[in-house]
Amino acid sequence: MSITSAATVVASRPFLVKRIEWLTPVNIGDKVVIADTDASPNLIIAGTCEVASQSQILWSGPQKLTLPGKATQTASWQVSTIQSGSLLIWF
Question: Which CATH number do you get for residue 10?
Fold first, then answer.
């Protein structure tokens, strides 16, 4: 899955993520945030660009990261902030 802007992912079951990579964030200090969509969102993963135009691995395992999914909700997780670049999520 490739995400280039803030987005909410609707899922009826969890995503078992193998890897999350933030491709080429542009400026030092740019941020990316993945959170759940509860009334008071819980941070799942976040990153801050430390080297301009250099990709960063936000999750590489070896265990899989579970991004929530619930059949009773309209959404399960969101990329609430992505200031530059794009996210690649392998599941």
Answer: 2.60.120
31-36 β-sheet, strand order: 7-9, 77-82, 31-36, 43-48
Strands 7-9 and 77-82: antiparallel
Q: Who contacts 40 (Cβ-Cβ below 8 Å, separation ≥6)?
A: none
When divided into structural domains, the chain yields a total of 1
> What is the pLDDT, as a whole number, of residue 73?
58
Reported residue count of the chain is: 91
Q: Please give the torsion angle defined by the CA atoms of residues 30, 34, 37 and 41, in that order, rounded to the nearest 10 degrees.
A: -70
For residue 61, the model assigns a pLDDT of: 83
pTM assigned to the model: 0.86
Nearest CA among 43, 36, 46 for reference residue 76: 36
